[in-house]
Write a structure and sequence with these properties.
The protein contains three helices and 36 strands. The chain is of the alpha+beta class and about 475 residues long. The protein folds into three domains: about 120 residues, Orthogonal Prism (Agglutinin, subunit A), CATH 2.90.10.10; about 140 residues, Agglutinin, subunit A, CATH 2.90.10; about 130 residues, no CATH class. Strands 28-27-35-31-36-33-34-32 form an eight-stranded mixed beta sheet, with helices on one face. Strands 14, 15, 20, 21, 22 and 23 form a six-stranded antiparallel beta sheet that branches. It catalyses: L-threonyl-[protein] + ATP = O-phospho-L-threonyl-[protein] + ADP + H(+); L-seryl-[protein] + ATP = O-phospho-L-seryl-[protein] + ADP + H(+). It is an enzyme of class 2 (transferase). It comes from Triticum aestivum. GO terms for molecular function: protein serine/threonine kinase activity. Keywords: Disulfide bond, Membrane, Receptor, Signal, Transmembrane, Transmembrane helix.
Length: about 475
């Protein structure tokens, strides 16, 4: 009987031997030539070199099951490469840290424990999400790579944009297509903004700004991606001063990621199985005038045109007809002593440098701007339909120049102040046409009366002549 079970035992032993390991323990460090592979087989962690001719080696995570060039989503020692790969070793230390060291004992990279007490026998595991997690024996997460991203955001990653209005998370692009060291472009929240908004920075200067985020916790409905047949879910999570951004994708969807590339573009990419390549679903910036404040004050980038271009707000005219980047000026100067009116412009990416007034209705937001002569514009958003779990309204006001605005098919209404009421072109045309028509009708009536009188005189003369001849 025992002989019957030998083949089964042998197969079980062989399968366990061939199975890729997803865990790192104190007794089993990771060295060059070996990898950790997630249980699903989707991701791998190990040592790599961006090019075959490159003598710099890095510890990173990449898609394991995809063909073609390696797509790296996380790098540990991006600014401190290993020159001799055979000397690199990743270990779990006795004090519950991950340490990447070389043969000389020099620490190339290490994690910082966020727990007060040291935990013995901690281990690290590469999850199916691509998250590399250091865990204590009781399952508590001590450290995770999702909290320390490089240039890529993966589904289910909770990106901590800010904590108590302070910038925490930051994506930093590669320096070049084959150089994972920190580049000049980064993406993070704006520390000077009263409401979270993401900005792509070129070193320390804003390069491109996204739409203003909702400070309340909001869970958006799914967005169908016709390119892939997937459904994208987005969420803004505000909990105890921690502001997270997260996205997930429907089941059985192709691999999806958001990457800040070395040229400064944030790209939303999905894997195409037919072409065995990454397909671009969307990117930002999308046009030249989408760069930060490129159109100048009181102007906006019009995305609704075939070729997006800078446009002046209604009631404004270009400062320089040759250079649109200088912005626009008012056709009529705005004075506090003169009456003013607000003009609505729909579908807008609202300008930068605003004040956020909380717990206001639309009428209260309007009154807040109307009573302040320095208020040049306001915008109001009702977040209740989006599933806001705190303040369901958002009132933004501007007290100076309107900079870095945009107009597209999706956006919100921007109400900006003009010195006089806008003239409706239809009403203006009617006012011009009506007097002309009335004048012509009057001339026609006069002509008809004159003709009638002339005809009457002619008939009377004819009758008199007949009587005299008769």
């Amino acid at each position: 009987m025992a002989i019957r079970y030998i083949p089964i035992f042998f197969l079980l032993f062989l399968s366990s031997f061939c199975k890729s390991d997803d865990q790192l323990t104190q007794a089993k460090p990771l060295t060059y030539g070996h990898t950790l592979v997630s249980e699903s087989g989707d991701f791998a962690l190990g040592f790599f070199s961006p090019t075959t001719s490159n003598r710099s080696f890095y510890l990173g995570i990449w898609y394991h099951s995809l063909p073609g060039p390696r797509t790296v989503v996380w790098v540990a020692n991006r600014d401190n490469p290993i020159t001799n790969p055979s000397s690199g070793t990743l270990t779990v230390t006795n004090n519950s840290s991950l340490v990447l060291s070389d043969s000389s004992g020099r620490n190339i990279w290490m994690t910082a424990s966020n727990i007060a007490a040291r935990v013995a026998r901690a281990h690290a595991v590469l999850l199916n999400s691509g998250n590399f997690v250091l865990r204590s024996p009781d399952g508590t997460d001590i450290w995770q790579s999702f909290d320390h991203p490089t240039d890529t955001m993966l589904p289910t990653m909770r990106f901590l944009a800010s904590y108590k209005a302070q910038v925490v998370g930051r994506f930093i692009a590669w320096k070049g297509p084959h150089d994972p060291s920190s580049g000049d472009f980064s993406l993070s929240s704006d520390p000077s903004s009263p409401t979270p908004q993401l900005v792509i920075w070129h070193v320390t200067r804003p390069y491109c700004r996204t739409t203003v985020l909702n400070e309340a916790s909001v869970i958006y409905g799914g967005t169908y991606l016709s390119n892939t047949g997937s459904v994208l879910y987005e969420a803004n999570i505000n909990s105890r001063g921690e502001y997270y951004i997260m996205f997930t994708i429907s089941e059985n969807s192709p691999f999806t990621r958001i990457t800040l590339d070395y040229s400064g573009k944030s790209q939303f990419l999905s894997w195409n199985n037919q072409s065995s390549s990454w397909a671009l679903i969307g990117e930002h910036p999308t046009a030249a005038c989408d760069l930060y404040a490129l159109c100048g004050p009181f102007s906006y980038c019009d995305y609704t045109q075939i070729i997006p271009a800078c446009q002046c707000l209604e009631g404004f005219e270009p400062i320089d007809d040759i250079s649109s980047s200088k912005g626009c000026k008012r056709k009529k100067v705005l004075k506090c002593s003169d009456p003013s009116h607000f003009v609505s412009l729909p579908g807008m990416k609202v300008p930068d440098k605003f004040l956020h007034i909380q717990n206001k209705s639309f009428d209260e937001c309007t009154a807040e701007c109307n009573r302040n002569c320095s208020c040049t514009a306001y915008a109001y958003a009702n977040l209740s339909r989006a599933g806001a779990m705190a303040d369901s309204s958002r009132c933004l006001v501007w007290l100076g120049e309107l900079t870095d605005a945009g107009k597209g098919t999706a956006g919100e209404n921007l109400y900006f102040r003009l010195a006089d009421a806008p003239v409706d072109k239809k009403i203006s045309s009617v006012k011009i046409v009506l007097p002309i028509v009335a004048f012509l009708l009057l001339l026609t009536c006069i002509a008809l009366v004159w003709m009638y009188k002339c005809r009457g005189k002619r008939r009377r003369r004819e009758n008199q002549n007949k009587l005299m001849q008769g």
